[in-house]
Amino acid sequence: MCIFCKIVKGEIPSNKVLEDDEFLAFHDINPAAPVHILVIPKVHLENFQSVNPELMAKMTPFIQKVANLLELDINGYRLITNNGDDGGQEVPHLHFHILGGKKLPWHRFDDANPKEAI
Ligand code: AMP
Predict the structure, then answer these.
(1) How far lies 115's CA from each of 86, 97, 109, 118, in Å?
(2) What is the CATH number of the domain that holds 12?
(3) Which residue segment(s) compose the domain that 105 sits in?
(4) Residue 26 zone, left/alpha/beta (φ > 0; ψ -120 to 50; rest)
(5) How many domains does one find in the chain?
(6) Which end of the chain is least crowded, N or C, by CB within 10 Å?
(7) Helical segments of 1-118, H only
(8) Could you say which DSSP state residue 93 is in?
(9) CA of 52: how far to CAs of 40, 94, 105, in Å?
(10) What pTM was estimated for this model as a whole?
(11) So which residues are the catalytic ones?
(12) Residues 6 or more apart in contact with residue 18 via CB below 8 angstroms
């Protein structure tokens, strides 16, 4: 069982922000910003590529509710989902990172080349 499924089952503790029947939001254990929340579906899906539109239709307002609850809607926030190896995904259970609490820097890669992008 993956680590986030264990959090859903309560086998691993988490610092919960919001929960309903289908989704859970909790604080990231190793925050990358002053506010760093993870939002997951309770059902195990590997990543964004496995998501169906019906689930996203419900997950979207849940994420917005978390942002409202933490008042991140006022000054803004960043929403990220890492997909697979190149995306830097470490936990193979779909999750959205909500990052905020300050003006976040935007990293650009030195080898970014729009001419080579398809
Ligand atoms: P990703 O690299 O997109 O797969 O992100 C995985 C995130 O899960 C990282 O930011 C970790 O800090 C976080 N994480 C891993 N284990 C836990 C845990 N037990 N509780 C809260 N966050 C965790």
Answers:
(1) 20, 30, 14, 8
(2) 3.30.428.10
(3) 3-117
(4) beta
(5) 1
(6) C
(7) 3-9, 53-69, 72-75, 84-87
(8) S
(9) 14, 12, 31
(10) 0.95
(11) 95
(12) 24, 25, 62, 65, 66, 69
Residue minimizing CA distance to atom 20 of ligand 1: 29
Look up residue 50 and give its DSSP letter.
Answer: G
Which residue type occupies 61? Answer: P
Please tell me what DSSP assigns to residue 91: S
Relative to the CA of 90, which ligand 1 atom is closest?
4
Report the distance separating Cα 63 and Cα 37, nearest Å. 10
Instruction: Render pLDDT for 18-39 as a digit per residue (tens, 0 to 9).
Output: 999 999 999 999 999 999 999 9
Ligand 1 atom nearest residue 32's Cα:
10
Helix or strand run (H / E) with residue 99: strand 96-100
CA of 92 to the centre of ligand 1 (A): 10
What's the pLDDT tens digit per position in 67-107? 999 999 999 999 999 999 999 999 999 999 999 999 999 98
Look up tokens 């086998």; give the residue: 11
